[in-house]
Design goal:
The protein has six helices and ten strands, in the order H-H-E-H-H-E-E-E-E-E-E-E-H-H-E-E. It has 222 residues and is of the alpha+beta class. It folds into two domains: 1-131 and 191-222, no CATH class; 133-188, no CATH class. The strands form two sheets. It has a seven-stranded antiparallel β-sheet with strand order 1-6-10-5-4-3-2. A hairpin with a 5-residue loop joins strand 4 and strand 5. The longest helix is centred in the first third of the chain and has 14 residues, at 40-53. It is globular.
Amino acid sequence: MKIRTIIAALVLAALPALAQAQASPSPAASLSPAPEAAEQPFIAQATKDLEARYPTAADAVKAGYFRYTNEDKSGSISYANLKWTSTDADTPSQLWYDVNGRLLGADYSVPYAAERPNLFGIDPARWGEFHAHVHYGLVAPDGTISLGGAGGKKFTSTGGDIANPTAAQLVAAGIAKSPSDVKFVFAFPHIWDLEVWILPNASGAFAELNPAVKPVHPMGEM
């Protein structure tokens, strides 16, 4: 999940407190969004592997990923597989697609530790910290799915457990009206996260936006 995805697409619309709490600043702003020489082999391998394995959103779903965000301001929709330890270019924890199911990029993650990861030849400063929180999908009467996230007092003050969230806890927090309305809910753990464009990006593989991608309806419903 891109840091901009949780903040722009999920959180700022309805959960401003979560926006401040979930993504910690990264020193990556001092780096060029274009890969350094030592980083280029990983980007090349990730691009080759992921384009072959998961070229469309349908391929990602077949491999165990599922959609959990709306389109964000970059035109990306995130899919996760709930496996938060990435070991190489083949094992992203998340994949991003546009509204037409075209592969755009990926997140790589490892459980949070005191030191930023020194992995894959990537400058440690490019890894951003995500604090633990919860994501969910709610089914509306017309069958559409509303996607969202929660954390901090919004969830725990009513007895919610961020590490083991349940449909009943979403009801207690006033997020869902009934457990039957909850299509899914999962814990997003405390991690270090690396965001990489797989679609060629003239601004650089680590840039926030890609000029080749035009959002259609950012922050809209599924």
